[in-house]
Design a protein that fits this description.
Oligomer: single chain
Largest sheet: 5 strands, antiparallel
Shape: globular
Helix content: 25-40%
Radius of gyration: 17 Å
Number of domains: 1
Keywords: Signal
């Protein structure tokens, strides 16, 4: 019984350490709005690595506001993720966001 409890605790810690938050915080470009930036970011993310067929689209995260829930019209937490053939997550968030004129915070 004791060993199964220890194994459960270890497995719980391993699971927690495996979770990675790839979101980055950006200020959207001047002259755009939160909805337009979402459309642009999402569109580019879904077709970004056009020259690398070994990557498979994984997910897009788009959450208006900063990490405290403020600035919902000017800042956004975003991630654009793909997976390589080994199962490693590869992100293109920085390239896409900055290519659209967003400013990292």
């Amino acid at each position: 019984m004791k060993s199964s409890v220890v194994a459960f605790i270890i497995a719980s810690f391993v699971g927690l350490s495996a979770a990675v938050d790839n979101r980055l915080l950006y200020q959207i470009p001047k002259g755009t709005n939160i909805d337009l930036f979402k459309t642009q970011f999402t569109s580019l993310c879904q077709k970004w690595p056009t020259c690398d067929n070994s990557l498979t689209f994984s997910n897009i995260i788009y959450q208006p506001g900063d990490f405290q829930g403020k600035n919902n019209q000017t800042e956004v937490k975003i991630a654009c993720s793909y997976m390589d053939t080994d199962g490693t997550i590869v992100t293109f968030t920085k390239e896409i966001a900055e290519g659209l004129g967003a400013i990292p915070l």
